[in-house]
Structure prediction request, 109 residues.
Amino acid sequence: MRRLALVVIFSVASSRLHADSKKLTVTFFGAPEGADKACGEDYTVEAVESELAVVVIVQRHPSTISLGPNQGCALVAVAHDATVKLQDVLGERAVLEIKQGLPVSVTAP
Prediction:
C-alpha cells in the first residue's frame, strides 16, 4: 500500500526586511510544538523570486509520533518567524503570499 504525502503550505502574515535588503523575515502561524512532539510540526521556508515579486513558501512537516487511544491534538496556533535569504535585494518588488497571491506587508529596517 502506497502512502500519499499531503503537502500543506501556509500563508505568510507579515514580513520584515533586514538592513542588507537581501534577507526577509516572515511571520506565519503554526503548531506550538516542533515535530519531535506528538501534534507538533517543523517548517521549511523558501523564496521564489522574479523581477517583479518574491513569493515566500512555508511548508509544514508534521510529527510522525502517534497519539494514544482517545487522545487528540489541540487546535492552537502560534506565531513563528523564519528568515529567507534573497538572491537579489528586494528593491521595489512585491512580497506575495502563496495561497491567493495577495501582497504581504513589508516592514523596512
About this structure: The chain has one domain: 9-102. The CA atoms of residues 52 and 80 lie 26 Å apart.
